[in-house]
Amino acid sequence: MCLKLTERGEDKVVKEEMEQESLNGTFDGRVMTEEQMETLRKQIAIYAVLCDQLVFLHNSLSSVPLLSSGMNSMGGGYFDPMVASSSAQGMSTRHRWTPTSMQLQILENIYKEGSGTPNPRRIKEITMELSEHGEITEKSVYNWFQNRRARSKRKQPQAPTITSGQADDAAVTTEERGSCEDSGGFESYEHILFPSPDLGIEHLLNRDKFMES
Amino acid sequence: MCLKLTERGEDKVVKEEMEQESLNGTFDGRVMTEEQMETLRKQIAIYAVLCDQLVFLHNSLSSVPLLSSGMNSMGGGYFDPMVASSSAQGMSTRHRWTPTSMQLQILENIYKEGSGTPNPRRIKEITMELSEHGEITEKSVYNWFQNRRARSKRKQPQAPTITSGQADDAAVTTEERGSCEDSGGFESYEHILFPSPDLGIEHLLNRDKFMES
DNA sequence: GATGTATGAATGAATG
DNA sequence: CATTCATTCATACATC
């Protein structure tokens, strides 16, 4: 309904301007009366409010953006050309960082010797080094170590106690994830709304993207 | 925020009109050039899209019981995998609290205005209010503010170190490049909505939580 | 292209 | 507060 409202308002404004113009005859731009201006102002204000609500709702519904195809390459958008695996994937631009084989190797090395010390300051150094082998952010480096440690810890507990027959542990590690059914696509809204908070508004104009498969 | 942006754009339009008007002298209404009209048209179009999304979102939400009145409780809708082992209805929802959209909204609001005051007594009040929108404990509220502050602090320090080599910082910030230059005709919308290069959609989303290295 | 798995990222909670 | 841990979510990738 909102859309309809908009179109209507727009058309109306334009049309009335036209009339105004013809009345004056001499002017070659567009015209609007004070009243029309006020109307427009109000309409915009309404949209502004709606926009706010939208944003608000979006925030409420979790986050994590989803990329969108035609996006630019912004300042630090990452794109990993190194990935050997033939990525039949569309150039799904930015989102989740994917370590390059080189980066992964380096990280793995540091992790081994670094005595599992996620060093706060060290992160920056590591990031520096890794950046030479592909896009990377400190945050990603941080996350990587965080995850690495956490996951290696969850896998160890089974090794130490290999006493007798025990094959159930395997299921515990990476199984539960699958149990997350979503209630009616609840989290899918974020994809529908803002592909990415970083991206410009332009994406909002690509309606087709909304239901993107 | 949206409102502010809007007002700005509006003012601009009005002002330029004034100029136009004076040139013609004879007209007493407002004036807009074809170009300005186009700009306005685009802005409205954008709002229309946003509005559309809002409606869409709203509809979607309405069909999701989770967000309706009584829902609440934790788990954004997913079940606790741990419970699986227990035989009967071991509804032990004893896991990590997950704020409902409403709760999050309220919290975010309080956070914004509350000037980041973790007020000891205030917590209780907030908890009270939030409890009307879902399961919640003072502890959780406390934690939320704690985390919120800590995480938002990581993002703010956006040192505009454009002076010397910013090679090492390039990868650090993954945010600000949000609304930057780019190709395509779409980018123009950004300027319309966000006159200031500093303003990006991310600001609208209020997502200052990032960098955490 | 549906299903499964590995893993980057987000965030509530715990610890110093 | 600053850091870290733990759990969960979402997505890239592999598989059939």
Structural summary, described in words:
- The structure is a homodimer of 213-residue chains.
- Among the domains of chain A are: 2-60; 64-84 and 93-159, Homeodomain-like (Arc Repressor Mutant, subunit A, Orthogonal Bundle).
- Chain A contains seven helices and one strand; from the N terminus they run αβαααααα.
- By secondary structure, chain A is mainly α.
- The interface between A and B is large, with 89 and 91 residues.
- The structure holds a DNA duplex (16 and 16 nucleotides).
Briefly say what this structure is:
Chains A, B: This is Homeobox-like domain superfamily. Chain A is an all-alpha fold and 213 residues long.
Task: Give descriptors for this structure.
homodimer, Arc Repressor Mutant, subunit A, disordered N terminus, disordered C terminus, DNA-binding, DNA binding (chains A, B), homeobox (chains A, B)
Write the layout of secondary structure elements.
The structure is a homodimer of 213-residue chains.
Chain A: H1 2-24, E1 30-32, H2 34-60, H3 101-113, H4 122-130, H5 138-155, H6 169-175, H7 189-192
Chain A binds a DNA duplex (16 and 16 nucleotides) through α5.
Number of helices of chain A: 7
Question: What portion of residues of chain A belong to β-strands?
Answer: under 5%
Radius of gyration of chain A: 27 Å
Low-confidence segments of chain A, given as residue ranges, are 1-22, 62-93, 160-213
Under the CATH scheme, which class of the domain at 64-84 and 93-159 in chain A?
Mainly Alpha
Q: Biggest interface, which chains?
A: A-B, 89 and 91 residues
pLDDT averaged residue by residue of chain A: 58
So, the CATH homologous superfamily of the domain at 64-84 and 93-159 in chain A?
Answer: Homeodomain-like
Sheet bearing the most strands of chain A, described? Answer: none
The topology string of helices and strands of chain A comes to HEHHHHHH
Main location (chains A, B): nucleus
InterPro entries (chains A, B): HD, WOX13-like
Organism (chains A, B): Arabidopsis suecica
Subcellular location (chains A, B): Nucleus
